[in-house]
TrEMBL record:
Transmembrane domains' residue ranges: none
Name of the protein described by the UniProt record: M14 family metallocarboxypeptidase
Peptidase M14 domain span: 29-304
Entries under InterPro entries matching the protein: Peptidase_M14
Family: Belongs to the peptidase M14 family.
Chain positions covered by the region annotation Disordered: 1-21
Domain of life: Bacteria
Coiled coil: none
């Protein structure tokens, strides 16, 4: 496989600091967080409280302020809803969907739920269209105590300091062709393991929490997205990305055990969305709209 990541280090040997540094040096900035994301967050100050909840300092690669949007009229008697995007920086519709929801639909929930929206959790990776952070760590496996991923640690501190109960958390993601051609081979190379090819589902699906699946909630999100884009079918063995399909378009992971962002709260309703932007049946606009539809459905379900 012609993949620069698989050429770093020695086959069968996990990467050390030198290999991780070589990987980082090979990552090239392809877009600007400061130009493409931050001004859109700043433009929402009339509607939200905009707080900086952290700062990533990646030396020569730059410093990246981390921003959260919070309901301006925060009501102590109401629970809050958490929306996160860009935990994996390359998953563009997660960032776009979170911002689009904030811009166009958040006001529909005024006085009904407090909102907390972190549109771009991993800006270094956003700029380089990467899954990992600058330390060759996957933030979405590092929502753990004493996290070594500063993106994950900062969001965990933010959540720990929020007032009130979290009713629902929806974490916006994508599954892309590059998962199979670049990121999974890189993971195998980094960890000194053989790469085992998988499949990429064609369509939208969600991931629920194994200990707390909430299938009616997951299915409500699927139904809301169905008019926007197609739902991923199961593989012939009844799985999506190797996990059993427990309802149409729904698989389960153990959020907290795997250190996933969707396990960062103790909310009763939690889900991770997955759109497929490389499908010939979906446009970038549809992917963004699917994320927005999923957020709205998740919040409305929580309000029932």
């Amino acid at each position: 496989m012609d993949n620069v990541d698989t050429m770093i280090g020695q086959p069968g040997q996990p990467w050390g600091d030198a290999e991780k540094s070589a990987w980082r040096a090979s990552r090239r900035q392809q877009r600007s967080y400061a130009e493409a994301v931050v001004p859109r967050i700043e433009a929402l100050r009339a509607q939200f409280v905009v707080d900086q909840y952290g700062m990533l300092d990646y030396g020569g690669d730059g410093r990246f302020p981390l921003y959260v949007l919070k309901s301006k009229d925060w009501r102590k008697e109401l629970p809050y809803a958490l929306v996160t995007g860009g935990v994996h920086g390359y998953e563009t519709s997660g960032v776009e969907g979170a911002l689009q929801f904030a811009q166009r639909h958040a006001s529909d929930f005024d006085g009904r739920l407090n909102l907390v929206i972190a549109p771009c959790v991993s800006p270094w990776a956003y700029e380089r269209i990467q899954r990992w952070n600058a330390l060759a760590l996957d933030p979405n496996r590092n929502f753990i105590d004493n996290s070594p991923a500063p993106e994950s640690a900062a969001l965990m501190r933010l959540v720990a300091g929020l007032e009130g109960e979290c009713a629902v958390h929806i974490d916006l993601h994508e599954t892309t062709d590059t998962d199979e051609t670049e990121f999974r081979p890189a993971l195998a190379a980094r960890d000194g393991k053989p790469f085992e090819p998988g499949t990429i589902p064609d369509g939208f699906y969600v991931v629920g929490d194994t200990p707390n699946p909430q299938l009616a909630f997951q299915s409500a999100v699927i139904e809301a997205v169905r008019p926007v884009t197609h739902i991923a079918p199961a593989d012939p063995d009844g799985t999506i990305i190797g996990s059993e399909v427990v309802a149409e378009g729904v698989i389960l992971y153990d959020f907290k055990a795997l250190g996933l962002c969707a396990g960062v709260t103790d909310a009763r309703l939690t889900t991770t969305t997955e759109v497929y932007p490389d499908s010939p049946r979906a446009t970038p606009e549809q992917c963004n709209d699917a994320q927005v539809a999923a957020v709205i459905a998740a919040l409305e379900f929580a309000l029932k």
